Amino acid sequence: MRLSYRIGAAALIILAIILIKRHLDLVQDDARVQSGWSFSSFSAESAADGTSNTNANANANPDTNVNSDSATAPNSDRVSTPKSKPKLTGSDMTNSKDSDAAARPMYETTPIIVPNDRVIVMARLSSEDTSWVSTDLNEWRNVIYTVDDTTATRHTPKNKGREALAYLQYIVDHYDDLPSTIVFIHSHKDGWPGAWHTDTMAYSNVDSIRALQTEFVQRNGYVNLRCQQTPGCPDEIRPFRDPPQFGRTTERVYAQSWIELFNNTDVPEVVGVACCSQFAVSKEQVLKRPLDHYQWFYDWVLNTSLSDDLAAHVMEYSWHIIFGQEAVYCPDAYQCYQDVYGNPYFW
């Protein structure tokens, strides 16, 4: 029995020694761990450098004298000030024994940059949910006009011309502070049949705007977001068609509308452009017309005796002309996809 006691005691002593050694090793390892925070510390070498730089600055500008005792931290009621303050630049820091403890942490910051050079403009009914614009296209600013509720924060005077009045109101309101790229689109996000005229596999305005080649917008001034040529191309509107064709109501009112809009009688023989009033323009292109032109167009839409639908269709086949294109603007579909979306097989 005595032998077994001795063996057990010896085993316990060995185990205790092993545990103590492991504990000491862990303590040493913890002492070597570096903190994830980066603190600025004033070593003797850096302090000497600071002193020499300060002396040099003092020699260069002898009138400068900073008194560290008079410095007061702003918002001192909310910020805890250490009892031993680090002295300000210009004082002798070589004799500060506790400067390491008093040093403030240095944080690395990344500036937040909100793009301010492109915007999405649209018209909406009060019943429509357009929150998807801010959610899915949050890299764009957006200005959305409610057309049927004059109590809304941003609204048109009345619901006339569908999207046209909202488009023109944005230009009139922001003529002097336009961003470089302006996209005018409808309030629907995606899907058939609401977004049938949007050229992506999911009929998605989100996908089309994300793929939009803004460099091409800047070069061309105007781009139609629809590259499929029907309806609209190559000759949707023939103002002087004789005899008039049944059902082409917009065509029958287009010549008179042109005279009222553009204040001239140079009505084109043929007008063709892919539908449907979704397009992008550059600031430079917008500014090629004076503000009073857009005010004139705005007043025409607001006050024309044409119906809401007819006024919208007249504008639909006039936007490309307003923004500097020929009366027939029907680029090849594959070339359009390459230019506008960066891929000839985009759709």
Write a concise keyword list for the protein shown above:
347 residues, five-stranded mixed β-sheet, two-stranded parallel sheet, 13 helices
Question: Can you tell me about this structure?
Answer:
There is one protein chain. By secondary structure, the protein is of the alpha/beta class. The protein has a domain at 118-341. The chain is 39% helix and 8% strand. The protein has 13 helices and seven strands. It has helices spanning 2-32, 44-60, 99-102, 131-136, 164-174, 205-211, 214-220, 249-262, 283-286, 291-303, 308-316, 319-322, 333-341, and strands at residues 118-124, 141-146, 181-184, 222-224, 272-273, 279-282, 328-329. The chain has a five-stranded mixed beta sheet, sandwiched between helices. It has a two-stranded parallel sheet with strand order 5-7. Helix 5 packs antiparallel against helix 10 (291-303). The longest helix has 31 residues, at 2-32. The chain is elongated. The model is unreliable at 27-102 (pLDDT under 50).
